[in-house]
Design a protein that fits this description.
This protein is an alpha+beta fold and 246 residues long. It folds into two domains: 109 residues, no CATH class; 114 residues, EIF_2_alpha (Alpha-Beta Plaits, 2-Layer Sandwich). Helices cover 56% and strands 11% of the residues.
């Protein structure tokens, strides 16, 4: 918490901390990041690789089947009016509630002998209008692509049948039956890798900030000048190779 507060002071203070006897300016932070860029690269690659591995092995692959239906004209009404569109909007709500009832969900679960609870089954399925039109889409998600398509189509046909029996309305028509999905909807490996790389870069910067935050050494001349201390001179650093040449 103290580090976070000091970091906020750093951002508000124009580029440096004021903490007892030490200041850390923006140049110092950029210098330490550039000096240990290997750590940034290592963590970015490591977290991206971990995200890719987790997506392939730890996260369940989910496929989604989709069937499209159309709310057509009632057999007893061959003309369209504004009242028809208002009625279709209400019918969509009726269909959404009907397909979520135990009357349909348990019917499908028992018919296909699915080892799943009614609540989990409802979470895997959805029904919604397409772009506020009279077309509606029924979807079902499963780890098996074939099963996702089969159950989606069975839900669509069951809804058409039960809507006629329960609601007394026979205006639902199946336009597109679900096909076996090829690509999963989850996990999105590319997105997970990007997120992993971003987490790795943030984590590396946090580590470098914490490391430099607790480094009490004075490394540059301006570290003293920031405190108003006049530097009269400095002793140059001699390297061994230079000493051997002399």
């Amino acid at each position: 918490m103290i580090f976070i507060c000091n970091l906020i002071k750093y951002l508000k203070g124009g580029g440096y901390f004021v903490e007892d006897y030490k200041r850390i300016d923006l140049f110092d932070l950029l210098h330490i990041i550039a000096k240990k860029i290997w750590l940034v690269i290592l963590l970015v690659i490591g977290m991206a690789t971990l995200a890719a591995y987790a997506s392939e092995n730890w996260i369940e692959t989910v496929y989604e089947g989709e069937s499209v239906l159309f709310i057509g004209k009632s057999k007893t009404n061959t003309t369209l009016s504004l009242d028809n569109y208002n009625l279709d909007g209400k019918l969509l709500l009726d269909y959404q509630q009907l397909i979520m009832t135990r009357h349909i969900t348990e019917y499908v679960i028992n018919d296909y002998k699915l080892n799943i609870s009614t609540e989990d089954f409802r979470e895997r399925m959805s029904i919604e209008a397409l772009d506020e039109s009279r077309f509606i889409a029924i979807t079902y998600r499963d780890s098996n692509p074939e099963k996702a398509a089969i159950i989606t189509n069975y839900l669509a046909t069951t809804l058409v049948k039960k809507a006629s029996e329960v609601l007394g309305i026979g205006n639902l028509v199946i336009i597109d039956y679900a096909v076996v999905p090829i690509e999963p909807i989850s996990p999105i490996i590319e997105l997970n890798i990007a997120v992993g790389a971003l987490v790795g870069s943030i984590l590396s910067i946090i580590i470098l900030l914490i490391e430099y935050r607790f480094d009490r050494r004075i490394k540059y001349r301006y570290n003293l000048e920031n405190f108003g201390i006049t530097v009269m001179g400095f002793i140059p650093k001699h390297f061994k190779d230079r000493e051997q040449q002399t």
